[in-house]
Amino acid sequence: MKVLAVVEDNADNRLLVRALLGHLYHVREYVNGSDALAAFGRGEVPDIVLMDISLPGISGLDVLLRMRADERLAELPVVALTAHAMDGDRAALLEAGFDEYVAKPIFDETVLLRAIERALRRVGG
Predict the structure, then answer these.
(1) CB under 8 Å to 113, separation ≥6 — which residues?
(2) Using CA atoms, how far apart are residues 47 and 77, in angstroms rounded to an integer?
(3) Residue 125 is assigned to a structural domain of this protein
(4) Where do the Response regulatory domain residues begin and end (predicted)?
(5) pLDDT higher than 80, residue 124
(6) pLDDT score of 30 more than 80
(7) What confidence score (pLDDT) does residue 117 get?
(8) Looking at the domain assignment, is residue 92 inside a domain?
């Protein structure tokens, strides 16, 4: 079973991801970017990451930039999970280096699964 890391400070959103995807992925939860980066640095590297953009401390974008600068994590697929759903937000996040984008709140498991599948295909996973 592939490992999915969800980096999300909202407990309800983490619970939703686990409920929607827990039967398909081993879900690891992180409440902030620092904890996720520390775990990844210890070798706990998942197959894919779902990353909230508005995290306490280090933003999701800053976490992504640190991951892309680390050769061990540079190719790891990362899907942005964000309430920022204004025109241009999707393009800006993809240009910043996210592999996919899903707007919150998440109502449809299919939308999330398709984004994950597209991101995994990009890296051959």
Answers:
(1) 21, 24
(2) 7
(3) no
(4) 3-119
(5) no
(6) yes
(7) 96
(8) yes
Domain assignment of residue 94, yes or no: yes
Do the Cβ atoms of 81 and 16 come closer than 8 Å? Answer: no
- pLDDT the model gives residue 125: 65
In this predicted structure, the answer to whether residue 86 has a pLDDT above a threshold of 90 is no
CA dist list (Å): 22 to 1, 2, 53, 90: 10, 10, 22, 26
User: Which one-letter DSSP state was computed for residue 78?
Assistant: E
Residue 108: partners with Cβ closer than 8 Å, 6 or more residues away: none
Answering whether pTM is above 0.90, one says: yes
Distance CA 108, CA 69 (A): 32
Structure tokens at 45: 């590297």
| Gap between the Cα atoms of 1 and 32, Å rounded | 24
Check residue 123 and give its pLDDT: 79
CATH number of 20's domain = 3.40.50.2300
CB 82 within 8 A of CB 112: no
Boundaries of domain holding 99: 3-120
Q: How many domains does the chain have?
A: 1
